Amino acid sequence: MLESILRAQFDLDYAEPKDLPVSLERLNALLDQVIVGTHLTRRELLSALRDRYKEHKRAQLLAEARRHTV
Amino acid sequence: MNVVDSPSAPARERWRTAGRFADVLEAEIKTRRNPLVARVVSWFNLCRLCQDLEEQMLLLPAPSPDDLQLHRSLLSQAIAAGEGLLLECADAASLGSLNLTPSALEARLESLRITFEQWHTEMKPARQEAILREVFGGET
Residue A70 gets which letter from DSSP? Predict the structure, then answer.
């Protein structure tokens, strides 16, 4: 589930404008699934995921850069 | 060049240029005599600039305080400008020629706010760890 959330945030970051609402809904749905029964908000969880998300995004960017240099 | 090398002087100059370009875009967005759709396109370009800077910072071993300050400033500009535009998009058909609805702006704004929070607010490591343990247990 953690990976799914990271991927969903990445998809939101890079979504085409017309696809943004669906991407946000997908991210919110995943967040809601995991915070149910806690006192956390979506934003608090994303804030706690800051380092994981930066690692994830960096890895995606490096992979993309390598694909372009091969 | 290795993508994680420190940025060269030309790269830093490009970032400074990006800051100036952001100011130009912000002025276009705020100029109400420009058509709304043109201002919305400029805003999405401003968002793209924020994304470009974030990508550059992620590829560095550690972003400098100047980089972080520029990123914070660009994000703040984009969030404020987007909130202003959204107020003018009360009519859902106003962005029809772009094949967009105001919900696209709302979603991009939310994404900018998330980015701002992740990069430019504090969270104590113990709190961060506690949240991740509570939500994901052993998955992290």
Answer: -
Q: Is A68 on the interface with B (CB under 8 A)?
A: no
Nearest residue in B to A5, CA atom: B136
Mutation for B interface: A47, A60, A66, most B CBs within 10 A: A47
For A3-56, what is each residue's pLDDT tens digit? 999 999 999 999 999 999 999 999 999 999 999 999 999 999 999 999 999 999
Residues in B touching A45 (Cβ below 8 Å): 131, 135
ipTM score here?
0.93
Q: Print burial letters for B94-129: b (CB count within 10 Å at least 16), e (below 16).
A: bbeebebbbbbbbbbbbbbbbbbbbbeeeeeeeebe
Mean pLDDT of B104-111: 96
Distance, in Å, from the CA atom of A67 to the CA atom of A61, rounded to the nearest integer, reads 10
pTM: 0.89
Q: Per the CB < 8 Å rule, is B135 touching A44?
A: no
